[in-house]
Design brief:
Elements (H helix, E strand, L loop, with lengths): L31 H14 L24 H14 L4 H7 L6 H4 L6 H12 L15 H7 L1 E3 L2 E3 L2 H5 L17 E2 L5 H20 L4 H26 L3 H19 L24
Helix pairs in contact: 5-10, 8-9
Length: 280
């Protein structure tokens, strides 16, 4: 839409926020300070900005307006990707970081946070049939399982081999040793979409019927797992659902770090409206 306003200007030469006043080519952009001033004006015009959480007394206070500045949007973008489980190297590329070190801050998860998250998710963990499974402590579960695509595996020989000895070639939705919890829902749903495309490709190349049938069975299995988890989550109170969402984000972030727990330091959010020293 913006490029359409400047048909004679190559899109690659347009700034992010081109100015149309006295500039028919759109090659003069809004300055960083100008954008910050606009955001300040917008924030100041909002009558009330409440936090999305209550304090120790159960009261919801006003959000700190000084935390709303252009660079904060970059932090929010990065943290959402980290919480979704995007790998560190992928996020580093998206953020144009020359080093992986600044990116690691978005994946910081303490062992305590991770274990607490595992305990919360344990109440909603299911097997390949979508049935609830017996709860074990977070520490025991980590010892008895290994990460596999879209969940965890508790098959002893595969656990001992660090996930490199699956006897059925990672057809997890068909294995009774497979476990999944709500933190895996996004990846399961993504996989379902990929399988649907695989099925169309298989049909297009006239693959054997048993190939197409196998893909369709896998789609049905993962759809059932996702359905059962969503059905369980729909019965939760708003507070319980929020706790599960928070735990899921922590676990996805720790998986995105490429190891159980990131050793990087915590994210340092710059306070102020025009941070200059934070290069992330």
């Amino acid at each position: 839409m913006v490029a359409a306003n400047y048909p004679t200007t190559p899109p690659q030469t347009l700034p992010l926020f081109p100015r149309s006043i006295q500039n028919a080519t759109g090659q003069k952009g809004v300055s960083p300070n100008g954008l910050a001033d606009w955001i300040d004006t917008w924030v100041d015009a909002v009558p009330s900005l409440l936090n999305d959480y209550a304090d120790a007394d159960g009261k919801v206070g006003q959000f700190d307006r000084t935390k709303i500045h252009p660079h904060a949007f970059r932090h929010a973008y990065a943290q959402r990707h980290a919480d979704a489980g995007v790998r560190q190297d992928v996020l580093a590329e998206l953020l144009d970081h020359e080093s992986i070190e600044p990116t690691r801050g978005y994946y910081f998860v303490t062992r305590k946070q991770r274990r607490e998250a595992i305990e919360i998710e344990a109440a909603h963990r299911v097997d390949r049939l979508g049935n609830p499974v017996s709860r074990v402590s977070g520490l025991a579960y980590e010892r008895q399982s290994v990460a596999v695509p879209y969940g965890s595996c508790m098959e002893p020989s595969n656990v001992q081999a660090g996930g490199q000895a699956c006897p059925i070639r990672y057809q997890c939705s068909g294995c009774m040793h497979f476990r999944a919890d709500p933190s895996h829902l996004p990846s399961i749903e993504t996989h379902i979409h990929e399988l649907l495309q695989n099925r169309e490709d298989a049909i297009a190349i006239e693959a054997a019927d048993w190939v197409v049938e196998g893909i369709e069975n896998e789609i049905a299995a993962y759809r059932h797992i996702a359905f059962k988890m969503k059905e369980d989550l729909s019965s939760l109170t708003e507070e319980e659902h929020a706790a599960v969402e928070k735990a899921s984000a922590i676990l996805r972030r720790s998986r995105g770090a490429g190891s159980g727990t990131s050793t990087a330091g915590p994210v340092r959010i710059t306070i102020g409206r025009r941070p200059q020293e934070d290069t992330r």
